[in-house]
Structure formats: structure tokens, C-alpha cells
Amino acid sequence: MNIMLFHSAYGLRPAVRDAADRLRAAGHEVWTPDLFDGATFETVEEGMAHKDAIGKDELLRRAVLAAAPYSERGLVYAGFSFGASVAQTLALGDEKARGLLLLHGTSDIAPNAAVDGLPVQLHVAEPDPFETDDWLSAWYLQLGRAGADVEVYRYAGAGHLYTDPGLPDYDAEAAEATWRVALGFLGTL
Q1: What angle do CA 28, 105, 55 make, to 5 degrees?
Q2: Is-contact 112 132, C-beta < 8 A?
Q3: Which of 79, 97, 101, 107 is most buried (most C-beta within 10 Å)?
């Protein structure tokens, strides 16, 4: 499988590279575009401020340019938190998308979004301050109405970015469970 993996608001940290290596070891081809041009951050607040300074339109432009050379192959779009929102936006706009793997995040769904059975898997903490229960319920229903085949996995007690061992949110048990399920999902695409 060809996977375009987008980083969180912390930037292209070692955890993202490690995740890409894990996916490659499972036989996938993976690209990890750096939407922040090398900038990484120690706090989510710093990362979000940097993301906001660049702006949503410019970040999406960068993401589209990164994916464009490979989209004809049929990409699985994936991402962490902010990167998941980028992945979702691109997957819903790419008729050749093979799947969508969301780790720790989602995004708004355009009212006219339509996909034909796009496989989607979301892994998120429970509770998650960025992905509230009400938001996730509405997101799930909207994505289903858009035609996606959606699976949601919740991890009780885990922090928001629980798969990143370099952050305080890290939860080894939840992270391993996530990767086990996600690799199984990717193996079915």
C-alpha cells in the first residue's frame, strides 16, 4: 500500500518517522511530508501557533503538492492529530484514495462530500479534549452519510497523542493496540 502520512502540530518528530518505519516494515511504501519546513515544537500551543501563522490554505496547498506525484497510485491518507485533519481533507477530495487512517484527530466534512465506500479507521483517546464525544458522534454520522465505511476505536484513559513516546500523553499499551489494529486495517486495503 502507498501511504501519505502527515505529522501533528508538533511537526515532523521522531515518532512520525518511527511510525513510517513501522509501516514500511509491514511492506508499505510511506511518505512523510514536512508541512512545517523543518520546524518542530515542544508544546502543542507552540505548534498550533505555528500552524495558524502558516494558515490552513497554505498548509493544504503544501499537502496537495506532496501527495500529487503519488495520487495516481491510489494513496491511503494517514495522519496524527492535525495531520489527520489534513489526511481526511485530501482523502475526501481524491477519487483514487484507497483508505483513510486517522490517529488522534478528525476534521470538518463538507456538506457535499461524497465517497464510494472509502474505508476509514479512526483511533482516538477517550476522553479527548480535541475530539469530544458529541463531535465524534456527528463526525461519524456525517462521514457515513458521505459514503465512507467508518470504524472508530477509543482508548480509555489515554492522552490525546498517546502513540508518541516523546510526549507526556504516551500510553504504550494503547499505542501497541492502535498499531496492531491499524496494520490489520491496512492489510485489508
Answers
A1: 100
A2: no
A3: 79
